[in-house]
Amino acid sequence: MHRGSAHGNPGESPADINVNALENFEVSGVDDFAVTLFFWSLFASAAALVAFFVLSWSWITALLAVLVGFVVFRHVTLKWEQPKIGNHWVSRGRGDKPQGGPAVPDTRHLPAVYFLYVLGSGGHTTEMLEIIRQQTRGQANQHRRYVISSGDRSSQDRVQQLEAQISEAFPDERAGTRDAFLIRRAREVHQSALTAPLTCLVSAGHAVNALTREPRARAATRYGYQFKYPHVVVTNGPATGFILCVVARLLKIFYLVPQNRLKMIYIESWARIKTMSLTGRLFLLTGIADSVGVQHQALARLTGAEYVGPIAAG
Amino acid sequence: MSRHEGRMCFVTVGATAGFPQLLAEVIKPEFLQCLASYRFKRLEVQCGPDYNWFAAQVEALPDNYGIDIRCFTYTKNMSLCYVRCRGEAGVRLAGCVITHAGSGTILEVKRTQAPLIAVPNPTLMDNHQDELADVIEPQGWGIWGKLGQLTNALARSQELVAQGRLNDLPPYSARSFPVPESERVTLFDWMVLTCYPEVLRQQQHLHDLDEVMANYEQKNEGRGENLEDLTRLAVD
To answer: Which InterPro entries does the entry mention (chain A) (predicted)?
Structure first.
């Protein structure tokens, strides 16, 4: 496989971007947002350390209580504010109507439509790619970002296959733009539980980057600023996806990103018929996702999650 | 009717981990004999990390019962292998795909309609595979096999082939993209709209209108009434 140019240059039309650009997208670069956040969190930890020695226990408890209270309050408010999901949302689109009315939902006239998909490995990737296939349509205002675990060659290859299919179907700018983001795996397959928290932190740092780095293809375009943060984050099971969602929620809780971005959807694996996976249970328990979808009716009845139909089964 | 290719059996252990027990099982003489008795001509094995070991095992086989055995580590285009196990009228008889019961593989094989035998790896702690086991046979997606009982599973799989007429399927066509607008998944689009509350309200209204319109048409089917009151609603 030949390697294409590193990235589409700003201002280049979206259709010109080489699919192979996915291969060369590294996490090495960081944007201002992540750097600023990093130094602020360093500052905050230093302040916390000083406070720990200077303040009395009652003060420490009080401050911690205020912090926890704030986070919980914000979390609950965000949950309260999230829109009710209608039944028709999860049904298949009603499409080209003979009467000529617009097919809803119509997102073609929005300034930006930006999806971030978290790919896991093996079966997770297969399902996620099918979900993307089932929902993508040609519109020039869309951007897709794929978050892939570094070292997962198979997922990278398959994303490129899918992207090739999309550009074949939409050779013009309707294919939209796309990029890939390689992030550190939260836990290697045989990693010990001792070092896992550390690597989780590293991948959380990478997640901030993946969530806030503006797509290069859109940087200098009209509405480019609308592409700064993804609208919808879709994940279906890998631990990386959960970490990414926790980070996204925290960013929202502390008003670090606009409130009308980073909506999160978790889709439970098609292989889950009677019980939720660990990730699924975590999502249900914490309520950080705006929608937890399952693909079997029996499971939806048991857990109270949203039934979205077997969308990954095609 | 001419059959250009004999039946093919494709064995896959997936991309992530090896499954040597399954590999050892498919080159046992009794299984090869069983394959030969169902007129299988080829056995292709995707063996993952155990390639070298498996290739040596194949070399050392005393007899291959007329079956052409090939193996490789991994291929980017697995669905091509599944399609070659799929029966097609006038082209080939339905063979069989034996997998490690990963959900991704099961999904993909199901789409191609190739006969499927799923053999879970007992050394991996993946309890959700039990759930698949309970539904896979009642739903007709394939056979749930066990290590040590592969010949049995192959016989049942070939029974299913005969029942489902899987030998005479129409030619396989890769599914088209984009998905027709009427079958698209729209959940993600609605979710995007929640970022733009104004537009969401508007589209929700349009959707409700559609619903009313559809109901109205259903009720007045064939009466040819005009839609005056509905247009008034639309203006509102």
So the answer is: Oligosacch_biosynth_Alg14
